[in-house]
Fold:
Amino acid sequence: MIADNLQHILQQIQIAAEKSGRSPHEIQLVAVSKRKSLGEIGEAFASGQRVFGENFIQEAIEKITILDTTICWHFIGHLQSNKARLAVQHFDVIETVDRIKVARLLNSHADEFGKDIDILVQVNIGREKQKSGIMEEDAVRFLTDLRQFSRVKVRGLMTMPPYAIDPELNRPYFKQLKQLSEILMQKDLIADGKPAELSMGMSSDYLVAIEEGSTLVRIGTAIFGQRVYIEEIK
Ligand SMILES: *Cc1c(COP(=O)(O)O)cnc(C)c1O
Structure:
């Protein structure tokens, strides 16, 4: 089941990439495994998946410390400052940086561990009150501020557009994030002068996101099925 889903999604990614004149190799699939068991993650791993995304630090660490060390772990949840140290210690990429205070902590903990930490800046592209992320107009200033943290490598941007049943409704938001990333690249605000990563697209809208330039799609439900919450199992 999980293997079939993964195969199907990788095929779809390839079709969407080719349709928009891109190479499928530019697009990484982040398998979102929050609330999923070691067995389910193992199944995805067995069919070749190596990049996983988790939302909750404690839940993630329980998995990370047991599972294969070749897995690349992305943190995609809201990061509290008191979890910054654990995030640096256990994750390869932190996708949800939107506060200088957290970036400062990530930097000092990275220094403590003697490593650099790759991050994405989360942008609240739909300007929703309840969502995390910086406002688009603050991006240049925010990324400029991040330059002071030598251990923090800004690889690109991440966004979660407003919930929409029709993925086409999210296309303008994806375009907007892509345009913003181009401005940031022109201003040399992406680490090492590399092209910006764009983490956009989930189960319902990843094909549209790829057409608009996504390089990381974060997909949970379409791989693992609906999430059942712990409270409901008890
Ligand atoms: C849960 C989650 C996803 C995956 O969503 P699906 O609709 O299950 O694919 C992607 N990104 C973030 C930030 C999430 O929290």
Summary: The CA atoms of residues 125 and 161 lie 6 Å apart. The first helix runs from residue 2 to 19. The pocket of pyridoxal-5'-phosphate is lined by residues 32, 34, 55, 76, 160, 202-203, 218-222 (CB under 6 Å).
